[in-house]
Q: What sequence folds into this?
């Protein structure tokens, strides 16, 4: 599974990327995460972007 990185990396005050919606901890964990974990990260990130929580 490819990274959801949009190459617009900029962290907000909550350490959430405004480009992909992942938290700093999720970005760090990505390379060691399995497919199920990556899917969960992507779902949470998508929700953050939809809710404007970045």
A:
């Amino acid at each position: 599974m490819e990274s959801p990185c949009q190459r617009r990396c900029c962290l907000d005050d909550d350490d959430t990327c405004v480009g992909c919606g992942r938290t700093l901890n999720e970005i760090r964990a990505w390379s060691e995460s399995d497919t199920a974990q990556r899917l969960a990260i992507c779902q949470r990130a998508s929700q953050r972007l939809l809710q404007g929580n970045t």
The longest helix spans residues 35-51. The mean pLDDT is 94. Helices lie at 24-29, 35-51. The radius of gyration is 10 Å.
